[in-house]
Specification:
The structure is a homodimer. In chain A, α4 packs parallel to α5. Chain A is of the alpha/beta class. Chain A folds into 3 domains: 127 residues, 3-Layer(aba) Sandwich (Rossmann fold); 152 residues, 2-Layer Sandwich (Dihydrodipicolinate Reductase, domain 2), CATH 3.30.360.10; 84 residues, ACT domain (Alpha-Beta Plaits, 2-Layer Sandwich). Chain A contains 14 helices and 18 strands. The interface between A and B is large, with 73 and 72 residues. β12 of chain A pairs antiparallel with β12 of chain B. Chains A, B: One of its GO terms (molecular function) is homoserine dehydrogenase activity. Chains A, B: Pathway: Amino-acid biosynthesis; L-threonine biosynthesis; L-threonine from L-aspartate: step 3/5; Amino-acid biosynthesis; L-methionine biosynthesis via de novo pathway; L-homoserine from L-aspartate: step 3/3. Chains A, B: It catalyses: L-homoserine + NADP(+) = L-aspartate 4-semialdehyde + NADPH + H(+). Chains A, B: Its cofactor is a metal cation.
């Protein structure tokens, strides 16, 4: 029998307790032994809890961390402290640790994995990225023979839900966000999701694994979806694209990586374009396996519990030879200014002769050639102009836009969105 | 250092040797030790081989099976014998075995897993289903806390390529098959793929894992794509569907399973509809995780080598507690006559008053209600009639069709294809 201590009894903690109870038989059969929840750490004994937690609650972390009978500590509190300190102590006390904490893993992974290795125990974190979708273990084990060339994904359900609502129901951003909050897909303060920080933490974790180098969230260039408006969604549709918040990392040189979270216009037949609503997906490109994609529910009580319990079973099962941190390399994350992309720009300018020429001039001076220009929607004497560039470095675009914003006849640059090259392999849709 | 013996140096064997050499450094870094190919079993020493094989070739299986230095035997010969006997001997000699052999695993898994467990070694077979796509390990480990409700997939690249060609390029079956053969996606004798047997073996393997019960290929109901014609593809498109060869298994009762490989019309926004060309995908529905899908190249030299080498690394890495066969249950695979589905029927009948009434009568007598009837394409006095039923047991349909075939005015029943209920979750496309 395996004894576990659960730290935190929020949504995911409750899901884990319920899953261990409801699927007790199946789990015991597959593992070859029972999993017993011995203690559960909470902060408030008076709160109403799942009946399965009865008799196991404690307010004292040491009741778990210092109990010699407890083999696996399951950290589901979230947040940086005291979660990080508890994880450290558990590892020091030679207990396996299973966590869903993307903040702690993405920022302090190096230190904690070294500690786990020294103690000869497992530190497992499948639930920290992509909820229930198997990602970490497939990447670390199943794709272990590949050099990873690129990973890109939709890693945040809140923003994907909002963009889907805007796309399919033509709701504007605020309405879509309110709907997400109503359904529990967004927090009352949704900035972590909306601004892309949640996706950035997850990208830091999976790109560290993919490229065997330590990438922390501060190294990731982050843009959220706050500026996406219905007009952008519509123009994207007209041009054959769908806007997604894409987290991607890829090798751009022998020892250089690009890591970016930003809204991207994807061709309608891109594998990620088919991922809608709260679903997440990660597309991995390996030099042997080619393109592989994992898709499923990136968050939610039971999907996340599914990943946590699978890790508990692995911790119970793993023998002496574990997979430790494989961040043996030290690659450089390039400055985002050097990253190249195609860009969509939507701006408002006075509908006068010569305006387009001045705008194009700014692009030309910065070595940016234009793929397409559409002038639309003249309201009064103000026209909306939409442009798509060819592949250019981001810093060139930023310089061109600085010049354009200064032009007298330009009212504002309403939005700038990256445009992905078409990746039509493997997916039906608009035919190439 | 891990010493391995490779049995068979065909396409996949060559891919494995090349991958171990080309990604030698990455593999050693991640595994923590080197993988050395000590011996390679071939049948013909005179054949031209990859230079990496030099000095390692042998005609004698015992050079590998009886070599105490060899830790892992990699069986890549294919076919039932002598592969099965070699695997048995390797396991008896307490060597780990990695294989891509779906025939041996699907038919003789029970015996071989018991032997592996008795010897305390691993028998790994990720490459036997879905080429490089991580499927086996995610199902056995990452989804281990779930009761699986259903699995469905596109498991054969040859047939998916053919159907995609028919769909997108409007090639007829014979042309599409010739193109597949020209590109190396189909064998000169393609029956194993076309008739669905390859998909059936793979379904047997993954449904055994999903439902913890031994399912052998003979228990799977199999229909191939030989009867699919362009007309069916076109009607499907008109009705908002795409035809795929779907392998699926699901719980239909407490202790009963349905296991079927057959062409199915999927709604255009079904996650599997987006899987085109030679790509494969498996959609798994777990009671905690919900829907999860794995997508990638189901075959091919390097994708398959990717899976084989990952298994070699796992065999090297796995400690004492392995995941053995988890087929502890004994569920019953129901007779396909009891399986229910919607059905599309295309038939040719004389364009006369009363014919439709007789045809409908046959359906009515067998408790089949019709969802839709289209009469088209009258050539001379022969009309093509397309019908879609509501959800009915297969045996009722078979009885109705037997009666219909006997009707004087019915020329022939050109085709019958299952129609899947729409699963619009998670995928863009036609909106519900």
């Amino acid at each position: 029998m395996i004894n576990i201590g659960i730290m935190g009894l929020g949504t995911v903690g409750t899901g884990v307790v319920e899953l261990l109870e409801n699927n007790r038989h199946v789990i015991a059969q597959r593992l070859g032994e029972e999993v017993n929840v011995k203690k559960i750490l909470v902060r408030d004994l008076s709160k109403k809890r799942t009946p399965y937690a009865e008799g196991k609650l404690t307010l004292s972390a040491d009741d778990i961390l210092e109990d010699a009978e407890i083999d696996v500590v399951v950290e589901l509190m979230g947040g940086e402290e005291p979660a990080k300190s508890y994880i450290k102590k558990a590892l020091q006390n030679k207990k396996h640790v299973v966590t869903a904490n993307k903040e702690v893993i993405s920022k302090h992974g190096k230190e904690l994995f070294e500690l786990a290795e020294k103690s000869g125990v497992s530190l497992l974190f499948e639930a920290s990225v992509g909820g229930g979708i198997p990602i970490i273990r497939p990447m670390k084990q199943c794709l272990a023979a590949n050099r990873i060339l690129k990973i890109s994904g939709i890693l945040n359900g809140t923003t994907n839900y909002i963009l889907t609502q805007m796309q399919e129901k033509e709701r504007n951003f605020e309405e879509a966000l309110r709907e997400a909050q109503r359904l529990g897909y967004a927090e009352s303060d949704p900035s972590d999701d909306i601004k892309g920080f949640d996706a950035a933490r997850k990208l830091a974790i999976i790109s560290s694994i993919a490229f065997n180098t330590r990438i922390t969230p501060d190294k990731v260039y982050v843009e959220g979806i706050e500026r996406i408006e219905l007009e952008d969604i519509k123009y994207a549709g007209e041009l054959g694209y769908i806007i997604k918040l894409v987290a991607s990392a890829r090798k751009v040189g022998e020892r250089e990586i690009e890591a970016i979270v930003a809204p991207v216009m994807l061709k309608q037949n891109h594998p990620l374009s088919a991922v809608r609503d709260v679903y997440n997906a990660i597309l991995v490109e390996g030099d042997a396996v080619g393109k592989v994609m994992f898709f499923g529910q990136g968050a939610g009580k039971m999907p996340t519990a599914s990943a946590v319990v699978a890790d508990i079973m692995d911790a119970a099962r793993e023998g002496r030879r574990r997979i430790y941190c494989t961040c043996y390399d030290e690659l450089k994350v390039i400055d985002v200014g050097s990253s190249t992309s195609r860009f969509y720009i939507r701006l408002k300018a006075k509908d006068k002769p010569g305006v387009l020429s001045k705008i194009s001039g700014a692009f030309g001076r910065n070595d940016i050639s234009l793929h397409m220009v559409i002038q639309k929607d003249v309201k009064g004497d103000v026209a909306e102009i939409v442009m798509v560039t060819h592949q250019v470095p981001f810093r060139n675009l930023q310089k061109a836009l600085d010049e354009i914003k200064d032009l007298q006849d330009v009212e504002n640059v309403a939005n700038v969105v990256r445009v992905e090259e078409a990746a039509s392999d493997g997916v039906h849709g608009n035919h190439q």
